[in-house]
Write a structure and sequence with these properties.
Belongs to the glycosyltransferase 39 family. Its EC number is 2.4.1.109. The chain contains 20 helices and 14 strands. The protein is of the alpha+beta class. The protein has a 6-stranded antiparallel beta sheet with strand order 9-8-5-4-1-12, with no helix packed on it. A hairpin with a 6-residue loop joins strand 13 and strand 14. Helix 1 runs antiparallel to helix 4 and helix 4 packs across helix 6. The N and C termini lie far apart (86 Å).
Length: 728
């Protein structure tokens, strides 16, 4: 029974020394001197703020993309014991001792290092020679811009890693299709493709380009499978469902998971939550939640409320009034009603409080039991401090003459009666009998007499002149068929009024309330709101000193100065290996020209290369040329500030094309032994030149050693490059 113990247990393993050597070289090139410089480098000033907020569990919104990349950077800080206490306000600021610089930069550096062996494996899986695969990996290894971008707390190297991982996994899945469909290996690579795609999209939305490319390639592959008569209908359905699960359902699920973890980590209120809705703010610890916790859920007649405009741009604001009146005449000569001003005020104030009154009763307190206000009910809104009624009439608004003026009514004993009845319309109701709920309900107020809708000025929240204290204009808009957030309000603060006397009520309005009903948003509601803010929130685009156009990238007519030593000439630049960039462009041009030549010749039934070589050539183009195109061309349609590092994912695919073209030329165009020898000699000389250029620009890639003024001037190979030279 125990006979198997008579012989030793032997484990045999095959080690690809090429892969091992490339991995070690990648790690050395990216990890060497990783803590240098111990100062904030370029966009570390941007991403570092988010790392600190993660460490302190404070909510933030970043309109640049999803949260997964930020969480990976924060993971580095967490592993290094970072407490989040550092002021990220200036490039070049020296890091304090509590900042674990090496740990914060570790994950981007590892991603950059592992991209080297990934490039090797991708070409092997595309069935090119190991020599070509090693060449592709070495080009990634020696590309100065990729080294620079991976050695700091930035996201591009992580994005490129997941993009390459997704491509590699898909190729391994594709290659296992013919001999082991639905095997463990087949499922592993298919599922890992979906995981890698979701991670790429989760780091930056640029990852969506490669994800869509792989979906198209997978779709073409399945289309060809449909024509395979050897596959049964059941088998085709299983293949379709498997691909749908791995390439759509899993990425979507993981994408949601990134946001779930993000929101679970960031549960504290902070400065960024001001752009979110009241319901979202109330779900965070501190901030608005401290005010709204335990408020009554249903608005009733007699409720004291503050009304926040849902639009939130150009700033959040609350329906507001004060004792000042509109001027009798405006500067342009138009007259006003001289009624009490109603505005939208961007700060919390006691004058933001209103009382919901039943038009048929005089009392301003909540009855027992409370009578909730429902969709379609008619109400009057009484200003809490001045006790005047919200009103609108056929008088032009001060800044928007096409709309009606909104005021609090003052009886001047003239022929201008009060028009203060408003119908409550709950926009997000589930039924026509829904009650008006605190924070959760989004409501419109429709004026009964004129059908005008209460809204913030259509001019994006126009600011009134000095007489209106620069507060935002509120108007009654008659053209209200469409839905716009400027005409939607939600109750933010709420209490049940108990005091009928005005003086007692004023004291009540200044006091916080505590009741026993809490409000919580579901994860999907919070995700939908946060996702919408990320997609629609636009920071003011300003021209940056190092911004560039997409046309500048191909020929590398631009660079970015990342860091300058405060006293010496040591500096770090995002600047590429110009020979690699030029060679990548030439390789792409050769590929396109040769492909067109082959297509024309094949149309004439002339086959210059064997069919298997042609299929290899086409499949390489789908991945490399397609990867370059989808990661580059969309930038011509983007209205945003662009930088050279946006080109790096596209460049990576273009670099992979270089050894593919070289192998193709060697195998199919160099017919004689002499021509092959001459071509090989050219490749060796060219590769030696690539290494020489890498060494030449290494001082501004690693920031060490410091260069003299003359040496820095020698590095300005293009007049458009901005190499920093100190004045003597």
């Amino acid at each position: 029974m125990l006979g198997f113990l008579k012989n030793p247990i032997v484990v045999r393993a095959e080690i690809n020394m090429n892969l091992l050597a490339l991995t070690v070289m990648g790690l050395i090139s990216r990890l060497r001197g990783l803590s240098y410089p111990r100062a904030v480098v370029f966009d570390e000033v941007y991403y570092g703020q988010f790392v600190s907020l993660y460490m302190k569990r404070i909510f933030f919104v970043d309109d640049s993309g999803p949260p997964f990349g930020h969480m990976l950077l924060a993971l580095g800080g967490y592993l290094g014991g970072f407490d989040g206490n550092f002021l990220w306000n200036r490039i070049g600021t020296e890091y304090s001792l509590n900042v674990p610089v090496w740990s914060l930069r570790l994950l981007p550096a590892l991603a950059g290092a592992l991209s080297v062996p990934l490039a090797y494996q991708i070409l092997v899986e595309m069935h090119f020679s190991h020599c070509a695969a090693v060449g592709a990996a070495l080009l990634i290894l020696l590309e100065n811009s990729l080294i620079t971008q991976s050695r700091f707390m930035l996201l591009e190297s992580i994005l490129i890693f997941f993009i390459l991982l997704a491509v590699l996994c898909f190729l391994k899945f594709y290659n296992s299709q013919s001999y082991s469909a639905f095997s463990v290996r087949w499922w592993f690579w298919l599922l890992l493709t979906g995981v890698a795609c979701s991670c790429a999209v989760g780091v930056k939305y640029m990852g969506l380009f490669t994800y869509m490319l792989l979906l198209v390639v997978a779709g073409l592959h399945f289309w060809h499978m449909i024509g395979d008569q050897n596959l049964s209908n059941v088998s085709l359905v299983c293949h379709f469902l498997a691909r749908g699960l791995a390439l759509i359902i899993i990425p979507v699920t993981m994408y949601l998971t990134f946001f779930y973890v993000h929101l679970a980590l960031l549960y504290r209120s902070g400065p960024h939550d001001q752009i979110m809705t009241s319901a979202f703010q109330a779900s965070l610890e501190g901030g608005l939640a401290r005010i709204t916790q335990g408020q009554p859920l249903e608005v009733a007649y007699g409720s004291q409320i503050t009304l926040r405009n849902v639009l939130g741009t150009p700033m959040q604001c609350w329906l507001h009034s004060h004792k000042n009146t509109y001027p009798i005449r405006y500067d342009n000569g138009r007259g006003s009603s001289h009624q009490q001003q109603v505005t939208c005020y961007p700060f919390k104030d006691v004058n933001n409080w209103w009382i919901v009154k039943d038009p048929g009763m005089q009392q301003l307190v909540v009855s027992n039991p409370p009578r909730p206000v429902r969709h379609g009910h008619i109400v009057q809104l009484v200003h809490g401090i001045t006790t005047r009624y919200l009103n609108t009439h056929d008088v032009a608004a001060p800044l928007s003459p096409h709309a009606q003026e909104v005021s609090c009514y003052i009886d001047y004993n003239i022929s201008m009666p009060a028009q203060n009845l408003w119908r409550v319309e709950i926009v997000n109701r589930e039924s026509d009998t829904d009650a008006w709920k605190t924070i959760l309900s989004e409501v419109r107020f429709v004026h009964v007499n004129t059908s005008a809708v209460l809204k913030v000025s259509a001019r994006g929240g126009a600011s009134l002149p000095e007489w209106g204290y620069r507060q935002l204009e509120v108007v009654g808009e008659k053209l209200s068929k469409g839905y716009h957030q400027s005409m939607v309000w939600n109750v933010e603060e709420h209490r049940y009024g108990k005091s009928q006397e005005q003086k007692e009520r004023e004291v009540e309005l200044h006091s916080p309330t505590q009741m026993d009903i809490s409000k919580n948003l579901s994860f999907m509601a919070k995700f939908a709101e946060l996702q919408w803010k990320i997609l629609t929130l636009k920071n003011e685009e300003t021209e940056h000193k190092y911004s560039s156009s997409a046309l500048d990238w191909i020929t590398m007519d631009t660079n970015i100065a990342y860091w300058l030593h405060p006293t010496s000439g040591a500096q770090i630049h995002l600047i590429g290996n110009i020979l690699i960039w030029a060679s990548a462009n030439v390789a792409a041009l050769i590929y396109v020209c040769l492909s067109l030549w082959y297509l024309v010749r094949r149309r004439r039934r002339i086959y210059d290369i064997p069919e298997d070589a042609w299929q290899l050539w086409v499949s390489a183009g789908r991945i490399c040329v397609g990867g370059w195109a989808v990661n580059y061309l969309p930038f011509f349609l983007m209205e945003k500030t662009l930088f050279l590092y946006h080109y790096l994912p596209a460049l990576t695919f273009q670099i992979l094309l270089i050894p593919i073209v070289l192998q193709h030329l060697s195998n199919h165009l160099c017919r004689s032994l002499l021509s092959k020898s001459m071509f090989n000699a050219f490749v060796v000389a060219w590769f030696s030149s690539v290494y020489l250029v890498y060494c030449t620009f290494s001082p501004v890639t690693y920031g060490d050693p410091s260069l003299s003024v003359a040496e820095l001037k020698d590095l300005r190979w293009k007049d458009s490059w901005n190499i920093l030279i100190r004045k003597q």
